[in-house]
UniProtKB/TrEMBL annotation:
This is Acyl-protein thioesterase 1. It comes from Linnemannia hyalina. One of its GO terms (molecular function) is palmitoyl-(protein) hydrolase activity. The keyword Hydrolase applies. It comes from the Eukaryota. One of its GO terms (biological process) is fatty acid metabolic process. Its EC number is 3.1.2.22. Belongs to the AB hydrolase superfamily. AB hydrolase 2 family. It is found in: Cytoplasm; Nucleus. It is an enzyme of class 3 (hydrolase). SUPFAM superfamilies: alpha/beta-Hydrolases. Hydrolyzes fatty acids from S-acylated cysteine residues in proteins with a strong preference for palmitoylated G-alpha proteins over other acyl substrates. Mediates the deacylation of G-alpha proteins such as GPA1 in vivo, but has weak or no activity toward palmitoylated Ras proteins. Has weak lysophospholipase activity in vitro; however such activity may not exist in vivo.
């Protein structure tokens, strides 16, 4: 059945060589796809076969901001209880919209799911984890930057087995005062206890942001999980 939700708009950086892989990366609260698009432009020099998609979150009324609207993947009930009172309905709605982008890559652009990396920063990290862990598609990898695992009390009842062995790149600054470092640590520990393949990268003195070293590590991850496919030489 077709989705009744609006299709997400996005900033797209097309592959500059033959398109054989796609990265879908979700921005954080109050941001837009344009905020991360320069990263795609920077990395594409080294992974020219990769198409980067940076979707835009809708403007939502935010409870913690007195109902004022801001670009967000889900409502924030309280700034002091990041692990509680999560907007499950909003998360699931945005998950559905993100999965439509995945299906479009698979069905229309002929990119297999195992050549797609799904990821995000902050709120985008949270949503990408939910989408990947509950997806029927097996992805090439997941990139989780400065976020936390959503719906931790019930997510293991929602997951599929498709991405049990999918490599998860998790980066977090130990000076993060927005999504505290301990939330990242706890989330990674929880995933490892449930047999997920998580690589946890700690960035000393980094706050709620990305760093050049993190982007270098991210590029190495992309080269590993979605390497450029060499053309098959015809036999003589």
């Amino acid at each position: 059945m077709a989705s009744t939700l609006a299709k997400l708009t996005a900033v797209v950086h097309d592959a500059t060589a033959k398109h054989t892989a796609t990265v879908i990366f979700l921005h954080g609260f109050g941001d837009s796809g344009a905020g991360w698009a320069p990263v795609g432009e920077q990395l594409s020099e080294y992974v020219p076969h990769v198409k980067f998609i940076f979707p835009n979150a809708p403007a939502l009324p935010i409870t913690a901001n007195g109902g004022m609207r801001s670009s967000a993947w889900y409502d924030i009930k309280s700034l002091s209880t990041i692990q509680h009172e999560q907007d499950e309905q909003g998360l699931l709605r945005s998950r559905q919209q993100v999965m439509e982008l995945v299906r479009e890559e698979v069905d229309r652009n002929n990119i297999p799911a195992n050549r797609i990396v799904l990821g995000g920063f902050s709120q985008g990290c949270v949503l990408s984890l939910l989408a990947a862990l509950t997806s029927e598609f097996r992805f090439a990898g997941v990139t989780a930057l400065s976020g936390y695992l959503p719906l931790h009390a019930k997510i293991m009842t929602m997951v599929s087995d498709a991405n049990r062995k999918t490599p998860i790149f998790w980066g977090h600054g130990d000076a993060d005062q927005v999504v505290k470092y301990k939330y990242g640590e706890q989330s990674v520990e929880f995933l490892k206890e449930n047999k997920y393949s998580v690589r946890f990268y700690t960035y000393p003195r980094m706050g709620h942001s990305a760093s050049p070293q993190e982007l270098r590590d991210l590029l190495s991850f992309f080269n590993e999980v979605i390497p450029e496919e060499l053309p098959v030489m015809a036999k003589a």
